[in-house]
């Protein structure tokens, strides 16, 4: 029987045409390269099956076999209206790549919109053989009442969301959206902005509410009171009405900056600003909560949400949970960095103070 070929750092370096030193630093998490290069090295290492000594030790400690005898099958639950979203694509990619590293598979299963009772959930679960899966991954944007019913299915589960209020027995893995909002507000404050308008629904999903809370708390910590009527926090009822609402609000506002809480609205905000004779960043600075780089505004100032990495971490956590079923449940938050783009203009604090005095006169 032929032996599995040992993968070395030099093989990874040769394939990527990088130095051995760069590959070694990338896999050890050391600085000295772009995030793009670090990501390429990590992807190549996973694809080729390379493991550092620390990774092998971690798998051994967590009782996760590197080459399992039993190939496991998981179900990835996603709503039908969100299955094509870029957020879910990134999450699914992370989950499936990590599962594949260990020889396992993940199948995407659509949630129909009409599931509104426990009986309907059970029938749907039977139709998709959920009882024979080794575990479930519950992706974001599942309605709370449906999510609650899914959390009661007798299977290991990973919830890609913030913990529900009733705190069920489930491992939650999610990017740190509160930290991302705080980074965004502080970036604007550091550049002299004190009159910041928040734009984004605050009630549809738990993550939306947490964004608003983090914004309000960070502003208050800076001595800046927050009143909801000074911001645009209503639900989305259509692009036309949304655009008109934002146009009126920004035209009547003395804001110097916008924090956009919903990534789809970034391009629309540009359109609204143009329609009222304001440009970004000359008249209004903009920071937007984005899933990834925006092709429309590649230099957009934004926090980095590690969505793909969250998918990988969730898959790791599922394998750990199967190997350690009696251990306490955990809520895991992944923190990202911040992209200092060109959509935030620095303003002088004394200029802002003079403007306020002028208005008072």
- CATH homologous superfamily annotation of the largest domain: Response regulator
**Topology-level CATH name of the largest domain:** Rossmann fold
Uncertain runs are 350-361
Mean pLDDT: 84
> Which CATH top level class of the largest domain fits?
Alpha Beta
Structural class: alpha/beta
Question: Which range best describes the helical content: under 10%, 10-25%, 25-40%, 40-55%, 55-70% or over 70%?
Answer: 40-55%
Radius of gyration: 23 Å
Strands, total number: 11
* Shape, per Cα inertia axes: globular
CATH architecture name of the largest domain: 3-Layer(aba) Sandwich
Strand order of the largest sheet: 2-1-3-4-5-10
Number of domains: 3
| SSE order, one letter for each helix or strand | HHHHEHEHEHEEHEHHEHEEHEEH
Cα-to-Cα separation, first versus last residue: 89 Å
Q: What is the number of helical segments per DSSP (H or I, 4+ residues)?
A: 13
β-sheet strand percentage: 5-15%
What can you see in these coordinates?
The structure is a single chain. The protein is an alpha/beta fold and 361 residues long. The protein has three domains: 9-50; 73-176 and 305-337, Rossmann fold; 177-304 and 340-360, Rossmann fold (3-Layer(aba) Sandwich). The chain is built from 13 helices and eleven strands. The chain has a six-stranded parallel sheet with strand order 2-1-3-4-5-10, covered by helices on one side. Strands 6-7-8 form a three-stranded parallel sheet, covered by helices on one side. It has a two-stranded antiparallel sheet with strand order 9-11. It starts with 8 loop residues before the first helix and ends with a helix. GO terms for molecular function: DNA-binding transcription factor activity; transcription cis-regulatory region binding. InterPro entries: HTH_LacI, LacI/GalR-like_sensor, Lambda_DNA-bd_dom_sf, Peripla_BP_I. Residues 7-61 form the HTH lacI-type domain. It holds the Pfam family Peripla_BP_3. It comes from Paenibacillus hemerocallicola.
